[in-house]
Design goal:
Layout lengths: L13 H5 L6 E4 L2 H21 L4 E5 L6 H11 L6 E5 L1 E4 L14 H8 L15 E2 L7 H9 L5 E4 L17 H5 L4 E4 L2 H11 L10 E4 L2 H5 L4 E5 L4 H10 L17 E6 H4 L8
Parallel strand pairs: 1-10, 2-3, 2-6, 3-5, 6-9, 9-10
Antiparallel strand pairs: 4-8, 7-8
Helix pairs in contact: 2-3
């Protein structure tokens, strides 16, 4: 590949990814092993903090995790979520900026209830008031709640196809300004809606809500640890732009390069060199 034609970050070799020293990188063989890695890591975090008599405050996305595995571990090992506070990364909104209803098939709130919270044994479940979802009518309430809880222990997430993290969209602004943006309502980029459509609406972009309320990079970067999980084949290129390209608001996930406790886990094929050519 000619460096004059292809962005230099896309030329980063698998070997360089494997030998990364700025932050820990773990490469797992399959999607299932990535899901298991997350479930085990999150369960262990909660169990350790329970034994220490501490709360666990975590930011969680809807994807890319199989939350049934986390619930199964918690039930089997009797890991209580009573001291856990979960902050969902985001929720879809309609054209007026109002959150979609719980009954909507794309509701993140309903998904988390169905896939995690209600699967926990009754005596292990977290208090409903500790399942925090960004409020489109009062976005700052999420920031206030995180501050009241003493900050976030771990933020889990992945990279979007346009480099978004949570629903923080690419913007043509100064990177330091962008790093300070809090929870807010915004319009989703066409690329983000298309990505969602491919995975959630059988390709129908029109069915994807046009806006969302999202936890901001301000709250994410303030988390004491950030764990990124990458499992889509197309993340081979996105990962390189976000972790090996410049830190820029044009690729919001690139700001995580600045985080002092970033950890990255990826399926083996994400570490492979991107395939660029007619297909």
């Amino acid at each position: 590949m000619s460096q004059s034609l292809i962005d230099e970050s896309l030329l980063v070799s698998r070997q360089k990814v494997e030998k990364e020293t700025r932050f820990p990188v773990e490469i797992v063989p399959t999607l299932e092993s990535l899901w298991d890695h997350f479930a085990r890591n999150c369960a262990d975090l909660i169990a350790v903090r329970n034994r220490e008599g501490k709360k666990t405050v975590i930011i969680l996305p809807v994807g890319p995790f199989d939350y049934k595995r986390l619930a199964a571990i918690a039930n089997q090992e009797q890991i209580s979520f009573r001291r856990v506070v979960t902050v969902n990364m985001d929720e879809f909104c309609d054209a007026q900026g109002k959150e979609i209803p719980y009954e909507h098939p794309l509701s993140f709130h309903a998904y988390m209830d169905r896939e995690l919270f209600q699967r926990l044994d009754a005596d292990l479940r977290l208090d409903p008031k500790n399942a925090v979802f960004p409020d489109a009518s009062d976005p700052a309430s999420t920031t206030r709640r995180i501050e009241a809880e003493g900050g976030v222990d771990v933020c889990y997430g992945g990279f979007g196809i346009d480099g978004h993290f949570a629903f923080n969209m690419p913007e043509a602004v100064d990177v330091n300004t962008y790093a300070g943006l809090p929870t807010r309502v915004l319009t989703l980029a066409p690329e983000t809606r298309t990505q969602t459509a491919l995975g959630s609406t059988s390709g129908d972009v029109a069915s994807v809500p046009p806006k969302a309320v999202t936890v901001g990079m301000k709250e994410i970067l303030a988390a004491r640890e950030v764990r990124v999980y990458l499992m889509r084949p197309w993340q081979s290129s996105v990962m390189r732009r976000c972790l090996y390209g410049p830190v820029t608001a044009q690729y919001p996930s690139s700001l995580l390069q600045r985080h002092p406790r970033l950890r990255v886990v990826m399926v083996s094929y994400v570490a492979d060199q991107p395939k660029i050519g007619p297909g």
